[in-house]
Amino acid sequence: RKEVEQDPGPFNVPEGATVAFNCTYSNSASQSFFWYRQDCRKEPKLLMSVYSSGNEDGRFTAQLNRASQYISLLIRDSKLSDSATYLCVVNLRFGAGTRLTVKP
Amino acid sequence: NAGVMQNPRHLVRRRGQEARLRCSPMKGHSHVYWYRQLPEEGLKFMVYLQKENIIDESGMPKERFSAEFPKEGPSILRIQQVVRGDSAAYFCASSPFGESYEQYFGPGTRLTVT
Q1: What is the mean pLDDT of each run of 10 residues along chain B (114 residues)?
Q2: CA distances from residue A81 to A20, A37, A78 in whole angstroms, order as listed
Q3: How close does chain A come to B16, measured CA to CA in Å?
Q4: Contact between B43 and A91 using a beta-carbon 8 Å cutoff
Q5: CA–CA distance from B113 to each of B12, B65, B67, B91 (Å)?
Q6: Do residues B34 and B46 touch, judged by C-beta distance below 8 A?
Q7: Which residues have CB under 8 Å from B76's CB, separation 6+?
C-alpha cells in the first residue's frame, strides 16, 4: 500500500461547480498535512495547511479525519484559474496528484 | 525576500557523467528537502537536511546519489555516473523549522541524460 493515495482524477467541471478531493495516508502517526497545486509541472505552490479542526481560506476548505486517516480539499465556486494538479502531502510524502480542469 | 533558488535550471549530461544540483533556501530557512519528479509521475521525496546534518534520507537511491547542506553555501544534490533513468525534474524546498511547517519550492532543475 502506498504511503499516500490520492483520487486519480481527472476532474472536469464547469465554472461555478464545487469539487472535492480526498487523500488517504497509511501512517497513523502522521503529523503534517498540506495541499499544494502544481501548474504544468512547474514548482508546487502551497495552497493550505490542514489542521485537525479544519480550516478555510476563501473558496477553499481543508479537513483532516485522523480516525479514517484521510484529508480532503473542497473548492467552491470553481474558477477557470483553478485548473491545475492538486497534490496532498503527508509527512513529506506527496500523493500522485489529481488533475482538475474547470471549463467555461 | 528572495525565494528558493535552484541552479542550473536545465542540465544536460551524458551517461556516466556527474550531475551537481544546487539549492539556496529562502533567507532564514535552515531546513532543505529534495524531491524528484519523473515524467508523468508525482513528486517523490528523496532527502531532508538541516544545516550540516541529514535528517531523513529514506527516499534516496542507495547508490550514486548523495546530498549535503554545509554550514555555508547552498545544498548540493550530487548524482554520480548518471543514467537515462535519472532524467527528471529535481525540486528543492525549504522551511524555517522542521517538517511540520510549510515548505516553499524552488523552480526546479530539469536534468536530461543523453
Answers
A1: 91 98 95 93 94 94 95 96 97 90 94 97
A2: 16, 11, 8
A3: 27
A4: no
A5: 6, 15, 19, 17
A6: yes
A7: B20, B21, B22, B23, B67, B68, B69
